[in-house]
Amino acid sequence: MFSELKPLPTDPILGLMAAYKQDTNPNKIDLGVGVYKDEQGNTPVLRAVKKAEAFRLENETTKSYIGLAGNLDFCQKMETLLLGEHSTLLANRVRTAQAPGGTGALRVAAEFIKRCNTNATVWVTTPTWANHISLFEAAGLTVKEYPYYDYENKGLLFDEMINALKQVPKGDVVLLHACCHNPSGMDLDQAQWKVVAELAKEQGFTPLIDIAYQGFGTSLEEDAQGLRTVADTVDEMIICSSCSKNFGLYRERIGACSIIAKDSATADVSNSVLLSVVRSIYSMPPAHGADIVNTILSSTELTQMWYDELDEMRGRINGLRTLIKESLAAKGVEQDFSFIDRQHGMFSFLGINKEQIDRLRTEYAIYMVGSSRVNVAGVSKDNIDYFADAVASVIK
Ligand code: LMR
């Protein structure tokens, strides 16, 4: 049966990682996969994580199964991080299952949606993270797109977005990026979140909020503000969160899928379905990542250390956004790149064409996704000149 299979192309984002690794050009720059890098181009383990791991090594008492929902203390802390410590939802309407990364959380959500409504359509932004579409389709759901990023003006197509969402019926799901939109870096402002929240309530569709970059945009609190507005407005929603980026726990695969239901009884029923989904996919999540996050968030000292490290990462990313804009202008590039400084998180589209992207890769060993999405954290004070010269030369 295997001989019937046809080879598939490599993943557009992960394929870049492999190609970059093999490139022997000493000047090579990786602007591909969404992984934070420091000024030296490394992705170090956070200091707070190292301390939590040392604590865990000393204090772990068993390797027995963890349970379907995973580490319940971790789940509760994630709910607080997402919804805010004063949220009234925490007491009765939210239920959370730990999941293997943000992608695992999305897959659990997809199967949960399928159990709620086999015919649900999931609406995603144009564009969205490439894996969103294949992930929901793989779960047997229909995926449709709604307008979002304005490629021409490097902003939002907000009116078009709202007009499209006005056609979405009850029983469908609308996926929204809480902050640091992947791939465009273009986020809704708070007034726009209010409009979307009211529309979700009016139309009756279910918002699914993907929050993979909390703390990478403006702050931990502000990055969750839109999500909180929606949560306070609608009867039900789904939140898929990830600790890959903000805790730097990429390879530990730690995230969560949270369901908010209209009341406690419905939340309990939803939770039983959520856990049955988990059981049928991977039975139980791994323990390590959740223990680390829980250990950090249980300690005032480690939490403060993590806040500081998160501030450092966000500060560097925002500084690089300004640096890229200024360096390109200094090289005499006429095209306006000031939008990079207005966008948030790790990603922006450079807005250059395929031929220019290919030239950057073949002539300069600068790697970015084929859509011109760049991970700004791949730039540093050491390579910014090389990068700006290269972009200037392919644009001219
Ligand atoms: C990205 O968008 O680069 C990250 O979310 C990593 C991935 O899995 O694609």
List keywords for this structure.
single chain; 396 residues; alpha/beta; Aspartate Aminotransferase, domain 1; Aspartate Aminotransferase, domain 2; 2 domains; 7-stranded mixed sheet; two-stranded parallel sheet; 47% helix; globular; binds (2S)-2-hydroxybutanedioic acid; Aminotransferase; Aminotransferase_I/II_large
Description:
- A hairpin with a 4-residue loop joins strand 5 (149-150) and strand 6 (155-156).
- The longest helix has 31 residues, at 300-330.
- Helix 2 (47-59) runs antiparallel to helix 13, helix 5 (101-116) packs across helix 11 (264-281) and helix 8 runs parallel beside helix 10 (225-233).
- The protein has 16 helices and 13 strands.
- It has helices at 14-22, 47-59, 72-83, 89-92, 101-116, 130-138, 158-165, 190-203, 220-223, 225-233, 264-281, 288-298, 300-330, 339-342, 354-364, 384-395, and strands at residues 29-30, 94-99, 121-126, 142-147, 149-150, 155-156, 173-177, 206-211, 237-242, 255-260, 347-349, 366-367, 373-375.
- The protein has 2 domains: 10-44 and 310-395, Aspartate Aminotransferase, domain 1 (Alpha-Beta Complex), CATH 3.90.1150.10; 65-298, Type I PLP-dependent aspartate aminotransferase-like (Major domain) (Aspartate Aminotransferase, domain 2, 3-Layer(aba) Sandwich), CATH 3.40.640.10.
- A 7-stranded mixed beta sheet has the order 2-10-9-8-7-3-4, with helices on both faces. It has a two-stranded parallel ribbon with strand order 1-12. The protein has a two-stranded antiparallel ribbon with strand order 5-6.
- The structure holds (2S)-2-hydroxybutanedioic acid.
- Residues 27-391 form the Aminotransferase class I/classII large domain.
- This is Aminotransferase.
